[in-house]
Input
Amino acid sequence: MKIRVINPNTTAAMTDTIAQAARRVAGPGTQIVATQPAGGPVSIESHFDEAVAAVGVAEEVMAGERDGTDAYVIACFGDPGLLSARELTRAPVIGIAEAAFHLAAMISTRFSVVTTLGRTGIIAEHLLAQYGFAHQCRRVRAAEIPVLDLEHDPQAALRRIIQESQRAKEEDGIGAIVLGCGGMADLTDTIAKAVGLPVVEGVTAAVKLAESLVHLGLQTSKHGDLDFPRPKAFAGQFRHFSA
Ligand code: 5HY
Output
């Protein structure tokens, strides 16, 4: 099977980090195609960044449909454009936040999220409520590091994430940690060892869930709100979406 792992920001180094983690857990016979949009923010740290990135995600799904893709992973913890992406394909589309919440809820009764900037914490809280996991998440904590510090100053970023994860273990009464950024995909084992708690990371969680859905022959329903968008004209820079 072919899984297209889309990094919704436009930082190639982070796409590589995400690709390596995805390939590390992919099963035999699973091909990982790691991509990022041609245009968009170098990192996603606000609602505006998310809105622009969602269009890039849609374009990557359209490209994936021309490339015989069996499943998609949206590798940003805000799951930008998840539902619109599901409208554009029959293939399963998995967001890394949704995937991580599901798996964390299977191995713990309470978990906390450790994300990058405090200001994006609200996005994770909205998703927890939307996906029905708000009652199982004790806190959405922030290491207060810009997303690209994960690439530019990884040691300092790791120290901050471990500190915040340690605080979560001591203060939140939890059984697991969820890492709140696609760029943290290579930190799972290091943090789990340092903190002594199970750590769930979204990229690897999403790849395994995508494989399971494909193996079960389960596809995105085209009955109801996730049916293909109705063909229509688009103007200006979106003219290429016209059908
Ligand atoms: C992510 N931003 O996973 C989110 C993390 C965040 O560019 N990739 C990004 O802080 O919301």
Notes: The longest strand covers residues 137-142. The chain has a mean pLDDT of 98. The two ends are 29 Å apart (CA to CA).
